[in-house]
Amino acid sequence: PALRGHRLVPPLRRLEESLCPRHLRPLERYCRAERLCLCEACAAQEHRGHELVPLEQERALQEAEQPKVLSAVEDRMDELGAGIAQSRRTVALIKSAAVAERERVSQLFAEAAATLQGFQKEVLGFIEEGEAAMLSRSQGDLRRQEEQRSRLSRARHNLSQVPEADSVSFLQELLALRLALEEGCGPGPGPPRELGFTKSSQAVKAVREVLAAACASQWGQLRGLSGDEDGPHKLGPEADAESQDPDNSSHLDSEVPRDYFLKFAYIVDLDSDTADKFLQLFGTKGVKRVLCPISYPESPTRFTHCEQVLGEGALDRGTYYWEVEIIEGWVSVGVMAEDFSPHEPYDRGRLGRNAHSCCLQWNGRGFSVWFHGQEAPLPHAFSPTVGVCLEYADRALAFYAVRDGKVSLLRRLKATRARRSGPLASPGDPFQSVLDSHFPGLFRSRLKPAFFLESVDAHLQIGPLKKSCISVLKRR
User: Fold this and answer.
1) E.C. number, please (predicted)?
2) Which CATH number goes with the domain that contains 460?
3) Count of domains forming the chain
4) Could you say which of 217, 349, 366, 368 has the lowest number of CB atoms within 10 Å?
5) Measured between alpha carbons, how far is residue 398 from residues 254, 260, 353, 409 in Å?
6) Is 34 domain-assigned?
7) What is the predicted pLDDT for the residue at 185?
8) Can you give the residue range of the structural domain that contains 31?
9) pLDDT tens digit string along 414-465?
10) Confidence of residue 157 (pLDDT cuts 50, 70, 90)
11) Is 156 within the bounds of a domain?
12) What integer is the mean pLDDT of 70-77?
């Protein structure tokens, strides 16, 4: 009866968490401005003027939003699960590739050591053969000279022992001494002017210097080319030769299953803070150029002179793949440096018209690629679905036509490797010359997916990779 007129609520298990730590009063109000539960004293003091509602009212509103939040959580958990599975496969692939490469390198070093040992054996054998041949000649001459000296010594001794009265013996011994002396007439063989086998050290020294220079050169190339090589690259010397020619016909004519690229899938969301006022966004995936400007809030990253929009997030140190559906109009898709100013004038700010961006353009008649203000037309029919693959480790950007679960290369932009003789590119390909000179500099910055809608009513949609790539990753 004493509590009959009081307000009764269910008992709280953790009473201290439902009390204001400053005023020790029940938390009965909710501040929507700062998303905090408050007591009446806090509401009347620090949060005066804020939007305050009862806890039950806010809970009812949040419970209505709960299914949407839970759905977003499930989607994010699916993405994270797919990413975890891919990362685990990547870790296993890296480990297995490292083990296999270590074995190959050890085998090649063993073969190189065996080659050096074989060369060492041959050089030492050459020295022994030269020594034996020259010793054979020199020792033969030595024996002959020693024998001659011995004969002269005996003949001289015999002559000295002849009695003075014995004229016959004197004449005979003197004749023998003269004959022994005549046998040794002429100079004996002198020392050899050059020992042929002494050049062996020079040959080995030359091999050592060549080997040291080759090791230093290869080590420099290895360090210079090292990185996150997780892109869709080929293996072997044939692929290395093809990678130097971005327009290789085998790439242009071949088709690759789309599922292969989905393991590099990147979910692109349009950044509304970068959209030009003449672009209307449809969620985070669609954009259309309109005639009437849209009153977007002020943003330092918003384009002011070009009908362009960027994707959220900056890309670096990896391989990324996304798709774009060209619905209508002239559309350009590509990448742009994160630090490029969105306030550049129209002639320099457009996608592909500067050194800070490049793109694939559909102009209503055909495809072409743009970089640094240079255009290169492409001899390919229209494809409403375009795939973009950014290979950051390889400093390359590739555009693909996507049809019926297959992708075919439209053009792969990459600077060719420097050759020892001749220019980097043929004089007849000015676009490749521009790539060789400036394209590597594009990758000094983090890059963002970029989209330019050139014609009125141009319309594009970011491809629905989300469910597709997750299902493929789960299957794998």
Assistant:
1) 2.3.2.27
2) 2.60.120.920
3) 2
4) 217
5) 14, 15, 18, 7
6) yes
7) 61
8) 16-50
9) 998 654 444 444 456 889 999 999 999 999 999 999 999 999 889 999 987 6
10) confident
11) no
12) 90
CATH number at residue 38: 3.30.160.60
Q: Specify whether the CB–CB gap between 451 and 435 falls below 8 A.
A: no
Inter-residue contact 207 to 119 (CB < 8 Å)? yes
Domain membership of residue 154 (yes or no) is no
Ranked by mean pLDDT, the top range of 85-94, 140-149, 207-216, 322-331 is: 322-331
Sheet containing 357-362, strands listed edge to edge, beginning at the edge strand earlier in sequence = 308-310, 447-453, 331-337, 357-362, 367-371, 374-377
Residue 472 binned pLDDT confidence (cut-offs 50, 70, 90): very low
Q: What count of other Cβ atoms lies within 10 Å of the Cβ of residue 232? A: 15
Report pLDDT digits (tens) over 262-287.
Answer: 888 999 999 999 999 999 999 989 99
Is residue 113 predicted with pLDDT exceeding 80?
yes
Would you state the pLDDT for residue 191? 61
Q: Is 98's pLDDT higher than 50?
A: yes
Residue 45: inside a domain, yes or no?
A: yes
| Per-residue 3-state assignment (H helix, E strand, C coil) for the chain | CCCCCCCCCCCCCCHHHHECCCCCCECCEEECCCCEEECHHHHHCCCCCCCEEEHHHHHHHHHHHHHHHHHHHHHHHHHHHHHHHHHHHHHHHHHHHHHHHHHHHHHHHHHHHHHHHHHHHHHHHHHHHHHHHHHHHHHHHHHHHHHHHHHHHHHHHHHHCCCCCCHHHHHHHHHHHHHHHHHCCCCCCCCCCCCHHHHHHHHHHHHHHHHHHHHHHHHHHHHHHCCCCCCCCCCCHHHHHHHCCCCCHHHHHCEEEHHHHHCCECCCCECHHHCCCCEEEECCCEEEECCCCCCCCCCCCCCCCCCEEEECCCECCCEEEEEEEEEECCEEEEEEECCCCCCCCHHHHCCCCCCCEEEEEECCCCEEEEECCEEEECCCCCCCEEEEEEECCCCEEEEEEEECCEEEEEEEECCCCCCCCCCCCCCCCHHHHHHHHHHHHHCCCCEEEEEEECCCCCEEEECCHHHHHHHHHHHC
pLDDT reported for residue 246: 38
